[in-house]
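User: Hi! Is it possible to get a structure for several chains at once, not just one? Here's what I have:
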Amino acid sequence: MRLKLLKISGLLMAFLALQGGLLAAQDSNPELSYTLTPMEPPVAAPGFTLDDMDGKSHSLSDYRGKWVLINFWATWCPPCRKEMPSLEQLYQTFHGRSFRVLAVNQWENADLVFSYLGDLDVFPSFPILFDPDSKVSEAYGVRGLPTSFIIDPQGRIAYRAVGGREFDHPEVVRLIDGLLPR
Amino acid sequence: MLLALVSATTAAAGDVVHEVNPASGLSTWRVEGQDFSVEFIQLLPDFVRAVFASRGLPQDVINAISSYCTFGTIVRNKATAPLSYNVADWRYVTADGVAHVGKTKAEWVEEWRERGIAFRWTLLPEAQTFQVGDWGQGFTTVKLPPGTRFDLHYAWSQRGDTITHIIKDMRCAPEVIEN
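Assistant: Yes, the chains can be modeled jointly so their relative placement is included. Here is the combined structure:
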């Protein structure tokens, strides 16, 4: 049994190495894009209340009056990992200007996520919320991970991005900067 | 660069690049130079078992999905307009001329839902419309034995047209990599 577990762990490591190799091989052709698709017209964002890693509840309605980027993600998802530092950078750039980030984890528990986050180059300072039965992602029509939404101060979905994004790309920064009050 | 280039062919719809990872021995097929770019990475059955076991799924569910030929699949919209794909339209044509249909995420999720399992991640969404810059990744599955060779006929829709492309001589991952 122990041998079997070791073998499976080895396979997982091999796959992660494969993924790393693929990512390295694609450096000349970045796999994270930077476009955000405007929702025209904006539609009401489904409300939710979810716990963070400390058990504190966060409701979307708590953030009314602010721009909120909601990022649906999971630890097993390579592009989720890749985009996380840029999400933190974006949050650091704008959190003093009515901009918030909520990262909504899918199907995983706080122990696993905490361990995963500790392994990242940058530990996220925005709230990590838990959607253990994927009810919230389902309400948002999320088909794959990562998927992100930008919610306007009126609680409407203003932009959507399917797949990993380079959130600190100048085009994204310029867009967010233009949305926020001075 | 970790991946060793094995072959590259040019087709009307894009360049097919087949690479073998010298460390793992597993193959990747990638098609570039078209509006809908695709990449298929062989996955060993043991890896698929490990992924679903780590998500806490029941053993019979793990055994069922790991008996399928599975690829890590990455699809992207590289066009300047929206495009759509539907995995149910894709065909895996084996040497005997039989066109096999993959088992879609919707079919797996429905099967799991009947078992009271709400898990719906890691598999490539069966159908999506990608806006400019959108992309996705996940597993695609077809009921073929390890090592089976096939031509993949895949398609996408763009501005009302359906475009079909073929990747020739793809192979399911073997049961194990021989050293």
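Chain A is about 35% helix and 25% strand. The helical segments of chain A are 2-25, 78-94, 110-118, 135-139, 170-179.

User: Great, thank you!
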